[in-house]
Amino acid sequence: MKIKHLWLYVVAAFLCLVTAAYAQESRLDAVVKRGKLIVATYSTAPPLAFTDENGKLVGFEVEIARLIAKDLLGDPNKIEFIIIQSEGRFPSVLSGRADFAIAATTIYPERAAKVAFTHPYMDSGSAVLVRRDSGVKSLADLNDEKFTITGQNNPQNAERAKRFVPKAKTLWFDNPSELLLAVKSGRATAMQTDVPIADYFALQNKDLVVLPDMVEKLGVANNAIFMKPGDFTWWLFLDTVVRELRYGSRYHEYTDMYQKWFGKNPPPQRFYIGHGK
């Protein structure tokens, strides 16, 4: 009799857990009820997310976030941006403070163990930007104790610096604008950052040049939106938006945004796109 009662208790407890899981409100529903999307992002990472001369937050990632707000709430301005630094990216979503984050964040398996990534909204990778007057033409040239390389303070950048330029000094900061200032002021010879940011800085600063061999050695990486794990409905909505932008019905919109911020078509170019820019 006791065993029978025990099994009944176990079954009842299991049913309660299942019912509670199904009854739990998705963040998608919560955002709709709130009437506002809350997004964590940078403000110092041009051309992805940065503050312009008028103090307005702009950039490629900012436009994607506003597009999501429009899809969900009918208005791209029904959005609140939480400005974060590199170390605050993952806590911003894991704490529930932000609905999702879009912050120049590359997908790595160890990161995917903490947060849920969508499909990538952008092909990226790691590049090294150097001062033209340094005489550095390759990573081999940079691998010298007289040079300093800077980058954002994370384990991946530290590992790459140790692997490719172990003799060079290192200097770590929290955001891309600080990296640029360090190189422009002469505190560092080179900076390690995402390819789109490196290309943008090189375009804006003729005294800087991108070394090609970092991209060649590491290949393509991917940047993605990320959120707190465990909410499939919310993840599916965000992932669907990204996939339709990159591969589906909204690819023309994606191409227009990409051309606006990067001055070229997004790679890899789809055969069915008609923009010949």
Helix/strand class? alpha/beta
Strand content: 15-25%
Number of structurally distinct domains: 2
CATH architect. name of the largest domain: 3-Layer(aba) Sandwich
Spatial extent as radius of gyration: 22 Å
What series of H and E elements makes up the topology? HHEEEEHEHEHEEEHEHEHEHEHEEHH
SS element count, helices: 12
| Biggest beta-sheet profile | 5 strands, mixed
CATH class of the largest domain: Alpha Beta
Strand order of the largest sheet: 11-10-12-9-13
Shape: globular
CATH topology of the largest domain: D-Maltodextrin-Binding Protein, domain 2
Folded structure, characterized:
The chain is about 45% helix and about 20% strand. It has a 5-stranded mixed β-sheet, with helices on both faces. The protein has a 3-stranded parallel β-sheet with strand order 5-1-6. A 3-stranded antiparallel β-sheet has the order 2-3-4. Strand 2 and strand 3 form a beta hairpin. The termini are far apart. About 5% of the residues have low confidence. The chain has 2 domains: about 140 residues, D-Maltodextrin-Binding Protein, domain 2 (3-Layer(aba) Sandwich), CATH 3.40.190.10; about 90 residues, 3-Layer(aba) Sandwich (D-Maltodextrin-Binding Protein, domain 2). The protein is α/β, with parallel strands linked by helices and about 280 residues long.
